[in-house]
Amino acid sequence: MHDRIYDFSQLTHHIDQALRSVMSPTWTVITELVIIGLIFLGFYALLGLFLVYAERKVCALMQNRIGPNRVGKWGTLQTVADLIKLLTKELVYIKRSDKFLYNLAPFIVIVASFLAIAAVPFAKGLQAVDLDIGIFYIIAVTSLGVIGILLGGWASNSKYSLIGAMRSGAQVVSYELSVGLSLLSIVIFTGSTRLSTIIASQADGWWIFKGHIPAVIAFLIYLVAATAEINRGPFDLPEAESELTAGFHTEYSGIKFAMFFLAEYMNMFLVAAIATTLFLGGWMPFHIGHWDAFNRIMDYIPSIIWFFGKVFFIIYVIMWFKWTFPRLRIDQLLKLEWKYLLPLNLINTIIIAFIVMMGWYF
Amino acid sequence: MDTKLKNYIVKENGDIILNMGPQHPSTHGVLRLEVVLKGETVKQVVPHIGYIHRGIEKMCEYDTYKQIIHLTDRMDYLSAHMNNEAVCLLVENALGIEVPERVKYIRVVLDELTRIASHQLWWSAYGMDLGALTAFFYGMRDRERILDIFEESFGSRLLHSFNTPGGLMHDVHPNFQKHTMEFVKYFRKKLPEYHQLLTDNVIFRNRTQGIGVMSKETAIAYGVTGPSGRGSGYSCDVRKIAPYGVYDQLEFEEIIYDEGDSFARYMVRMKEIEQSLNIIEQAVDKITDGPYTAKVKPIIKLPEGEYYQRVETARGELGVYVVSDGKKFPYRMHFRSPNFNNLFVLNTIAKGHLIADLVAISGSLDLVIPDIDR
After folding, report:
1. Which of A31, A341, B313, B334 is the most buried (most CB within 10 A)?
2. Complex ipTM above 0.85?
3. What CATH class is the domain B15-373?
4. Could you tell me the residue ranges of all domains in chain B?
5. Mean model confidence pLDDT for chain B
6. In 10 A of CB A174, how many CB atoms?
7. Which of B134, B200, B353, B354 should be substituted to probe chain A, the one whose Cβ sees the most A Cβ atoms within 10 Å?
C-alpha cells in the first residue's frame, strides 16, 4: 500500500488525463513533450549549478579550505555569479580556426549529455521514456560527446587543443569497452536492457549484493572506466592543466567554455545515475532479508530521495578520486584499460554468465 | 584548410612544434620551452630564456655591497636568505671580518628554514604538475608556519634581505628560538602526511620512477648541482665539500641517491627536509647571547682583486664572483646560478619521453626562472 504513496505515475497520469480532456490527442502529446523538455532544461541548469558548487565544496573539504562562502548564504550563489560572468564574457575567435565546427562543437557535447537524461529513471514512475533498449540508448548517446571534443580540438587551430582532442579520442574509445562490458554483466543477470525491468529485479536486493563478488568487480570496473570516459581526474588527460593548459577547450571562452564545463558535470551525473540504476537498485529502497519492520521504515523514504542519495554518493566518490590522485600518463592510461581492465572484465563476464546459467544467485 | 595553415601546425615529416610558455602553468615562470613533438613523444626541447632578465649583474656594478644584498633576493626568491649570505660571506672573507657566533648560528637556522620552505613549495607545485591538486594545499599550509617565523623577525615573508656584511640587519625576535622549535616539532608530525599523499601513491611512482634518468656523468658534464645532482649520485653539497658558516660543526648527512630519475630527485628533497630539521634542532640551542653584527665600516671597499664564494641554496650551488678595483662598487659581478645549469640538462634527459613526462622532469629539476635570467 505504502508503495503507492510516492508513485509519480499517478501524478503524470492525472496530468495526462487533464490535458486529454481539453485538447486532441496529437496536441496532448506535443504539449507533454514541451512540458517535459522545459522541465529537463530547468533540471539540467539547476543540477549543473549545484554540481559545480558541490565540487568546489568537496574540493575545499579535501584541501583544508572553506570553499566559496561570500556570494549568498554559504556561497550557494557563487556558481550563479560565475555563470553571469561567463554569459557576459566576450567570445574570443581564433584566427584561421574552422568557425563552423568551432561553434558546433560545444553544442554536440552538451546535446549528447542532454539526450541521455530522457531515459534515466529518477523515481518510481518518473522516467520520460522507458525504452526497451534503455542501457544501449544511454551508452550510444553519451559516447556522441567525444565527437564534439574531437571537433572542438581540431577546429580551434591550437596544438594544445589538438593533442587534448586526440588523447580524448583514444581514451573514450578504449574505456567505452569496459563500460559496456561491465554494464553487460548486469544485463546478463537481469535478462533485459529495459531500465524499469532492471530496477524491478532489484526489489529484494541490489545487484551489488545479490551478484556476489563478480558484481562488485563489475561495479568497481564500471566506476573506474566511467570516470575515465567522462575525462574526470585522475584520467583528465584531455584537459591536463599542467601539460596542455586546458586541453581541447583551451581556445574556448565565455558561454562556449561554460557548455563544455557543464557537459562534464552532467556526464558525471549520468555516470552516477547509471551506476545507481544498475548496481545500487535505482530508486529501490534498501532492504535486508526478512527484517520486515526495517524494510517498512525504508519504504517510507521517498524513492526520489533514494535515487538522488545514491547518485550523490557516487558523485562524491568520483570527486574524491579527482582531488586525491595524481594524473595518469596517456600510455599508462591505455595500458590500464587494454592490459588489466578489459581482460579482467571479459573473464568476469564469463563467470557471471556461468553463475546465471547455474542459477547461483539469490 | 589551406596548406599554409597545415604547415603551421605540422611539419613535413609529421613533427609538431609546440611552444610551452612563456605563459604556461607548468613552466613555473616565464620560461619558454620549444618542444619538437612526434605525436606525443618529445624529440627535442629547446629552452628559450630571457623573458625576466633584469640585468641584475650589471646593476650590481653601480651599487655598494650593502645594496647588492637586496638585489640577490630577487634572483632565486625561494632561497633569498642563502643568496644574501653568499654575498655577505664573500665580503666578510675578503675583509677578514670576524662574525659573532650568535650570527653564525642564526644564519644556519635561517638557511635551513628557507630550504625547508623552498622544498615545501616545490613539493606542492610538483604535486600540481602531476595533477595531484590537493598536495599544493598541504605544502602551503606548513610553509605558512615558516613564513610566520620570518615575518615575526624580519617583517617580510619572502624577500627578507636580513643579512648584511658582518652580521644581521637587526636582532631576531625574542620568540625566534621558541617558535622555530615549535615548528620543528609540528613539522615532524606533518611530514608523514606528505609521504602518504604523494610518495606512496602508485600513480605517482609510475609517473616518476625511471623517468628522466640523468647519469652521474651527465650531471657533472652539465654542472647540475643541488638535489637534482645528488639524485644522480653526484656528491655536490657545498655544505659538506666546502663548509661555510658553522656547517662543519653540525651533524648532518648528505643525501645521495644513485638512480638519477625523477623519483630519486624527489626523494633527495624529501630526505633533505628531515636533515634540515636535524640541523635546526642542533643549531637553535647554540644561539648564544651576543651582538647581532660585527663592527663594519659604513662604506665597504674590497681590496683590488678577484673573489669567489659559493653556498648551497635550495636548488644547488650558487657562486658569487667579484672583480674589485678597490672602489666602493664592484668592477664586475657574476653569479653562477644553479638553475641555469639545471635547466639546460632538460633536453638530454627528456628526449624520447612523452609530454606528460617532460612536465614531470622539469618539475623534478625544481627550476626558478628569475634565477636563470637574473
Report:
1. B313
2. no
3. mainly alpha
4. 15-373
5. 86
6. 19
7. B134
